[in-house]
Amino acid sequence: MMNMAQARPLADARKSPVQKAPAPRPARSISPQVVDIGVQVAVVVVLAGIWEFGARFGALNPFLLPPLSMVLVRIWEDLIAGTVPVDLGLTLYRALTGFAIGAVIGIPVGILMARSAVVRWFFDPLVSIGFPMPKIAFLPIFILWFDIYDTSKIIMVAFSCFFPIVAATYAGCSSLDKWPIWSARCFGAKERELLWEVYLPMAMPQILTGLQVALPVGMITTIVTEMLMGGRGVGGAMIMAGRFADSVGVFAGIVQIILLGFVVVKSVELIRRRILIWHPESRR
Amino acid sequence: MSDVLAGKPDLRRRGPSLSYAVVNTALRFSPLLLLALGWEFLGLSGLVSQQMLPGLGEIFSAFSAMLFGGDLLYNTARSISRAATGLGAAIVIGVAAGLLMASFRTVRLLINPIVQIFYPMPKSALIPVVMIWLGLGDSSKILLIFLGCLLPVVVGTYNGARGVNPFLLWSASSLGASRFEVLREVVLRAAMPDILNGCRTALAFSFILMVSSEFVIATDGVGFMISSLGDGGQYPAMFAAIFFVAGIGFAADRLYAMLSRRLLRWREA
Predict the structure, then answer these.
(1) Which residues cross the membrane (chain B) (predicted)?
(2) Are both B178 and B250 inside the same structural domain?
(3) pLDDT tens digit sequence for B220-250
(4) What is the ipTM of this complex?
(5) Is the domain of B130 the same as that of B222?
(6) Which of A233, B112, B140, B210 could join B130 via S-S bond, C-beta 3.0 to 4.6 A?
(7) Is A182 among the domain residues?
(8) What is the pLDDT of residues A86-131, one digit of tens each?
């Protein structure tokens, strides 16, 4: 498949790189990209419509799926009352802080694992066991150790983000092409310069992939910790609404979380494209 | 990153004899022993209270009491059956949806926006929703696990099926295969590595969602067991149950890795 990496199979021949830069020709009809986007937007609009009118006219049970408009009105009211920014902000703060701690510890450990036999000896079994296990099960331990407030939530998030980041960094740093390293050495680069100028840039795509895996995991963990320990935050607000059978509140939380997740994931993709602007993957 | 164990030639070298392999494994996992010693030392030295860090012997005796006299195995079976049902349904439907998305433009246009919207959502947010929909029983957790595992499978299958070498497709159709036969005999197999990768992510998700949904809403299952042991202050048993669940998650991933290596034997590494 390697030699065919350029070819686009199946129904997607339109996007093949050969046709990406076509000779300018008179626009006979609307371009297929526009049709694609139009259809997909239409699908979303139709689904939202089914949700709204199905619930309004009784085809869907309005308790199980309250009409979209009611949910949006609730979000608007909460926005004015000031609870939405507080909840979203707290959730985002916990997720990002935990994620940052996981990254700040995980990336150096991953690099050191690739560079030093002692560090590798120590961390390799921990990472190979910790990577696949369900970290969320350790939550009661962190509650026991650090109480139920922000500390235990953030440490839990950092703990679950740590493993994917270490594994990706280690994998990225231990499979480096040796030619650039040798030539950098030939030009007299010191170890520190090698680290910043050669190792890190070469491992950067994989490190970023690890971060992109870890961030959603961190968000999942944040929501669960909030649901379990209560208090403010989107997860806490949703589980309260659920316990009081306030389905509008639950769906208001879902809509907020979808938006939050979408914004966070898309911004990380943008950041990746910006950091890897020099990398061949950005040319696609 | 598919295999975190890759890339350590010095420790993984195949030895000539069995004893060599045993010594190698022991050396490899010796840091765990070190950690265990540190754990014991911290507990015994009195720097940390026994409540916070029960001794390993205590944890082990609590574990064997739960295993032989208690309800650990029952709760584990309940949890695993939920996770397996949800994950199985997600794999069957997800692979079908991914293949159809890759083969038919209409299907792709219909499903893609839904995937785009729901993929970045932290799936644990659905816990209150399934609670409202299906209550506290089994079905709500199965639905949650199904929904959480579906998208990684769909996306993995779709990417794999789109990356199939078109020469394979062309030669299959020129040999007279129907569209369905091409899908079944060529696309499904060629996309298998990506499908298996997606399923591995889904497997990890199923464990996370299983445990966390049982923390929040449940009347049995390992997550419920852990949280009720914690609430009751039986910390050695709680630690034992947590390590047990973590071990199951680890074992499931190892088993899955072995299985997928078997399924992909035909591939030139």
Answers:
(1) 18-39, 59-77, 84-105, 195-217, 237-257
(2) yes
(3) 888 888 888 888 888 888 888 999 999 999 9
(4) 0.81
(5) yes
(6) B140
(7) yes
(8) 889 999 999 999 999 999 999 999 999 988 888 888 888 888 888 8
Domain count, chain B: 2
Q: Please, what is the angle between helix B127-134 and helix B192-216, to 10°?
A: 70
CB–CB contact B249 A137 (8 Å): yes
- Which of A126, A127, A140 comes nearest B226 by C-beta? A140
Domain coverage including residue B45: 1-50
Q: Within this chain, do residues B29 and B150 fall inside the same structural domain, yes or no?
A: no
- For the stretch A159-169, pLDDT in tens is 999 999 999 99
pTM of the entire structure? 0.82
B97 to chain A nearest CA, in Å? Answer: 15
| CATH assignment of the domain containing A112 | 1.10.3720.10
Listed by number, the residues of chain A in 205-264 with a beta carbon closer than 8 Å to a beta carbon of chain B are 206, 209-210, 213, 216-217, 219-224, 227-228, 234-235, 238-239, 241-242, 245, 247, 250-251, 253-254, 257-258, 261-262, 264
